[in-house]
Amino acid sequence: MGPDSQGSHGPATGKHIHLIGICGTAMASLAGMLRAQGHRVTGSDTAAYPPMSDQLRAMGIPILEPYSAANLTPAPDLVVVGNAISRGNAELEYLLDRPANDRIPFTSMAALIHDEFLARRERLIVCGTHGKTTTTSMLAWIYEVASASDPVFIPSFLIGGVAENFGASFRVHADSRSFILEGDEYDTAFFDKGPKFLHYFPDAAILTHVEFDHADIYVDLGAVKTAFKRMVNLIPRRGRLIAFDANPNVTECCARAFCNIERYGFQSASYWQATNLQQLGATTSWTLLRGGEEFARLTLPMAGEHNALNATAAAALAAGQGVPAEAITQALATFRSVKRRLEVRAEVGGITIIDDFAHHPTAIRETLRALRSAYPGRRLWAVLEPRSNTLRRNVFEREMVDALALADQVVFSAVFKSEAIPAPERLEPENVVAALGARNVPAVLCANADEIVAAITPRLAPNDVVAILSNGGFGNIYEKLPAALR
Known about the structure:
single chain; 486 residues; alpha/beta; Rossmann fold; UDP-N-acetylmuramoyl-L-alanine:D-glutamate ligase; Protein-Tyrosine Phosphatase, Chain A; 3 domains; ten-stranded mixed sheet; six-stranded mixed sheet; 14 helices; 23 strands
């Protein structure tokens, strides 16, 4: 909890709770969870964009723009400070400046989730540099399908994206025994620089990958590994850790676990082995072995080895918690992905426009590999906005070139808010474009979404696939490009 937070059991029903930075994916979900519990919820942000802004408005939760001390008048009962909020924010400064006898209690999102929603529930946490959102969504859907036959599996969940099967990023069910939660390694709040997942104390967890990411808060890979080692150290001896088998960093982070470790992946020595993998268009199928014996034959209506691995991890954790193989098989066969994860946004004149929440070169690589599999023989465009705190830096410039070289045509946008990155650390898109050109991959640089739309619309042809890669609003290019094509 924050230095002025309420007690360990969270707010009482019917409080006014204000969220600073409400349009973050997890913060918007928390807003809905609190509202469902009977609280009056308000929030503030800047540059609200879908899907979370749409979700908030659909729930009747107002988004106050811009940040202002006036948004805290009259004073709420509790304020949740988002992790993107730093000193200098008008509302945060107003909170801190109030006199001791008239303080407004405040806390972090992660601490409030623990106190308000995780008590007396089994905590199933999905962690890792890549695949968290999709894997968490798969696990929640597996539990939902299983609950049709056995209500003990009715899930509550919080996901860092909108799960298509639920049409939402969260649900809190009074009868849930289990809470399925995406465990984010990003820092918690301006007053708590540890990862959010250290607040969740998992009973069982998945660890997908460990790579250097979030270059704005982690100095190097060693610091990232330390964070994941601390998460692993929270799992009790009675718990379980489902850990990817082909990442040495994952192996290192699991080395001192007190709980049982079950490795998953393609390696024959792993307890959960995916074998006989076949990809046909946007469908992937494989046989899942458990301890060398066939557990299930799985089919997933998604392309990409990485999604088969995500599904394998979700199946492994669910099975170990008692979910029948039949429910797992049915759930994965009917899984509908997550918004902004290989999401088809439009089909115009035979041109397919895909939206993907790219935040790291590895994610870009796997997205383009999946699209190659799903759309064989079609010309593939990669349209990238370097927007995440990692992509805006030059730390992964070579890896970015390698990933983008999987496309036939590359269009690079200017670095989002480049002035916020120190010049020696800043990504220079010109370098990436030049490096791609040297590898005979046509690449161009445009200043913004409008320039990109104007530049590529005349060049697009029927049968092209356009992958728009950004973890933000990208100047609403998702709507502007289809409109221009029409």
